[in-house]
Design goal:
The chain is mainly beta. The protein has strands at residues 2-6, 9-11, 17-24, 31-38, 45-50, 57-59, 67-72, 77-82, 91-99, 106-108, 112-116.
Length: 118
């Protein structure tokens, strides 16, 4: 089982990034997916989630209107489009998969660093 995030990097305030998370080794299409982030000295927080079929999405208050989660089940990939980035968005971003049939089965990626700085 693997979840591999990519697309992180350094971006200026007000800029955009698109994160990707490629899944393998499990039935991606039956898993709800989510993005989480952890800033230095802070607890990990969930920023966005999407159901197995993409029909329902949810966002944390701090990113609503700026971030968009989407998925492509044909490509076993989930995305996070991040716009209007600010320094407060600096964190390591992780993707998570949760089995829609067994909520205790959870997989995590290794994370990708996003740094927002001028």
């Amino acid at each position: 089982v693997q979840l591999v995030e990519s697309g992180g990097g350094l971006v200026q305030p007000g800029g955009s990034l698109r994160l990707s998370c490629a899944a393998s080794g499990f039935t991606f299409s039956r898993y709800s997916m989510s993005w989480h982030r952890q800033a230095p000295g802070k607890e990990r927080e969930q920023v966005a989630s999407i159901t197995w079929d993409g029909s329902i999405t949810d966002y944390g208050d701090s990113v609503k209107g700026r971030f968009t989660i989407s998925r492509d089940n044909a490509k076993n990939t989930v995305y996070l489009q991040m716009n209007s980035l600010g320094p407060e968005d600096t964190a390591v971003y992780y993707c998570q998969g949760r089995d829609s049939y067994s909520a205790a089965r959870v997989y995590w990626g290794q994370g990708t660093q996003v740094t927002v700085s001028s």
